[in-house]
Amino acid sequence: MKRLVFAVSVGLYALTSAVFVAGQDSERTPANWPMIGGNSGNSHYSNLKQINRSNVARLEVAWKFDTGEEGGLETTPLIIDGVLYGITPRQEIIALDGASGKLLWKFSSGINGTGPDRGLTYWTDGKEKRLLAGVMNFVYALDPATGKVITTFGKNGRIDLREDLGRDPAVQSVALTSPGVLYKDLLIVGGRNPETLPAPPGDIRAYDVRTGALRWSFHTIPHPGEFGYDTWPKDAWKTSGAANNWAGMAVDQQRGIVFVPTGSAAPDFYGATRVGDDLFADSLIALDATTGKRLWHFQGVHHDIWDRDFPAAPILVSVRRNGKEIPAVAQTTKQGDLYVFNRVTGDPLFPIEDRSYPGSTTPGEVAATHQSHPLKPEPFARQTLTEDTLTTRTPEAHEWAVKRFHEMRNDGQFVPLSVGKDTLVSPSFEGGGEWGGPAVDPATHILYINANNYASIGALAVHSGDSPGRTTYLAQCSICHGEHRAGTTEFPSLLNITHKLTTEQITAVIHDGKGRMPASPNLQGAKLNALLEYLQTEKDLAPTNASEEQAASAKASSPSPESSAALMPGAHIYEANCAICHGDNREGIAPSFPALIGVGDRYTDAQILALIHNGKGRMPPMTKLSQHDLDDLMRFLRPLNAEAKTTDETDPSAAQYSMTGYRRFLDPDGYPAVATPWGTLNALDLNTGKYLWRIALGQYPELVAKGMPDTGSENYGGPIVTAGGLLFIGATNFDKKFRAFDKTTGKLLWETTLPFAANATPATYEVNGRQYVVIATGGSTMNPRGPIGGVYVAFALPQ
After folding, report:
1. 464-559 in CATH: which number?
2. What pLDDT is recorded for position 564?
């Protein structure tokens, strides 16, 4: 018998009715767009209506600003009092004149930023003003008027997100994909963490916006005595990772509640090291914004082994029931579901059903036997596949898809991946719902959601143990680059990578990240060296049909510390600055100069850095080394410290199985092997839970030329809606279009072609009585054949 469940836990708390809202004036001024979601509740809504249904077809380019950089842009800019604040692909911060696009100032941290950076945070108390910017592992406080660092914030103007986690900061990787949110004088942040172990925990942290001091932390991997501790193995908080908030948050400023959606625990697809439900992974958590105390929570996926993160910031809405307005919070999912809860109590406003699902056949894995399923609204993305839902683009493509379909396991949602057997996953691992999030019209209670509607293929592979390097590769890299290093439709092949990049360049990418690849500074010493040597092999070690001779020639052995040290990027820095005294191999020159082998066993990182900066005895201070050089030098010194303090049996990163890579179910021509539409835009009445309209979103230009204009396409970045009756959205990967729809009917009213695909959410604002709509265009990391760049484009009506 089916059970209806209300999977929330409510804590006791007191709410104050009178609170000070940071940036209140700028948030309530229609001319501004002061937060990436438009306001604290992420409504993506503007009261501006100069541009409306009757004149939107006359829109023209008002200005363009080319960052001159490549790498893609996913940023929604902020616009406050006529100034636009944005980010470049290299994570430099810019201020532009909102009316002309003229550059006012640019801030460069000196760090070569990589990875998605979707926005900034603007704070004011009416007197002081601050712009908070995430650059890699740091958050900087800048003066919005000048772009100068505010040195009283944190340490010389920045806080290090790798600190305050209870683990060695030097080997952590935490960066802001989405900007922090504000409550009073608190900056509340999550972060992007690695999806394989070792990974830092996904603590939610609040910092004093003036000083940068940590004010509170909420442990998403509970510590002993905290709620949810028993949903993990004992002491999991010491070694497990992720369960992090990368998608953004929403704040109810009146009630003092911050709503935090989290992602899966690490590793994503094999959970033997984290048996249990794993609270607070894959959860929507309501926290007291002043203290960080949990008020209520809902876990959307128990023991996630499908990477089903909550993919977008929640959106604060109101729902009319029995003539009353109920304050609510809505959360989209990668599965294509929408959950709606009472903001205060956590009670679901549409029924949620608890359903049974099969266990796992993979040794060591203990899959959850029950998962939640909302009965209403119906999914906004395709969750089941049959022969009738396969592509009919051509007879040949359909025939191929049917054959491939029957070769795979296809049992619907929450079916654990298998070893050696492909499983269809619909919607894809990316979603479904994506990070752009929905928009809502507060007057009509209509929610607008864009969605992806294609499928992925997943499977697990056993770690062969052919070499230490391959074991590390399977645990850390194969999820994206594939079991055999051949790459996937989304990620490049690593075969012969050493013909394209030097060892130093490869190590820099591993440690610093690039594009969608997160930084992995935790890979050090013997593990790093074994991985580097494995990447140098010409042939992969895994294919079972490889001859013994080929396997033997490709098999990598871990090099000695002395010979492998030269592979590290810091080797040249050491050679230029240190080797003359401490020897080429750090063995020292007795009796005058000590050996540096094992120096990390004698000194902490802070003490080593102090010696480098200040000198000691006959060692002069080295004050001219850049921060990047210091980081590389520290990494170079670290490998010869005790390299094997744990064995594979005790190392949580040495999982026995790994996912074979993100693979899409595509036909031989590279198009989705499922039926159209492959991308949609949906309008949903929140009062009734019923859809008002649904249209295909996105095109493939070459298919349009063949008479197929309504395929829809993959899309990333969300919509905005306005009082002028319009919905604006870019998002589509292949056609580089920016579109305006009638929000009531879904009718297309205007479109234009952008310099690059706009995988970003637009913003609208007003300067000197003129309304603008602006969007960041940079190309799509999901379309490796498309151009990439970094251009902001603003549109307005002719003057």
Report:
1. 1.10.760.10
2. 42
Give the start-to-end residue ranges of the domains of the chain. 464-559, 571-640
Please state whether the predicted TM-score (pTM) of the whole model is above 0.70: yes
183-187, 458-462, 521-525: segment of lowest average pLDDT: 521-525
Cβ neighbors of 131 (< 8 A, separation 6 or more) are: 85, 93, 120, 121, 122, 123, 141, 142, 143, 144
- CATH number for the domain whose boundaries are 571-640: 1.10.760.10
| pLDDT over 50 at 563, yes or no | no
Q: Could you read off the pLDDT of 212-258 as tens digits, one per residue?
A: 999 999 999 999 999 999 999 999 999 999 999 999 999 999 999 99
Question: Judging by DSSP bridges, how do beta strands 45-46 and 720-722 pair with one another?
Answer: parallel
Question: Quick check: helix, strand or coil at residue 201?
Answer: strand
Q: Do domains 464-559 and 571-640 have the same CATH topology?
A: yes
* Amino acid making up residue 647: T
Q: How far is CA 129 from CA 20, 22, 26, 121, in A?
A: 15, 10, 11, 11
Q: Which two tokens stand for residue 1?
A: 């018998």
Between CA 133 and CA 290 the distance in angstroms is: 22
Q: Taking the CA atoms of the chain, what radius of gyration do you get in angstroms?
A: 26
637 DSSP 8-state letter: H
Percent of the chain whose pLDDT exceeds 90: 68
3-state secondary structure of 109: coil
Q: How much is the average pLDDT of 668-696?
A: 98
DSSP string, 287-322: EETTT--EEEEEESSSS--S-----S--EEEEEEET
Whether the per-residue pLDDT at 540 is higher than 50: the answer is no
CA–CA separation, 257 vs 343, rounded Å?
9
Q: Is pLDDT above 70 for 293? A: yes
Interior/surface letters 206-245, b for 16+ CB within 10 angstroms, e for the rest: bbebbebeebbebbbbbeeeeebbebbbeebbebbbbbbb
Whether the CB-CB separation of 425 and 457 falls below 8 Å is answered with: yes
Rounded distance, CA 403 to CA 416, Å?
Answer: 22
Q: Rounded to the nearest 5 degrees, what angle is found at the Cα of 109, between the Cα atoms of 107 and 113?
A: 105
664 strand-pairing partners: 456
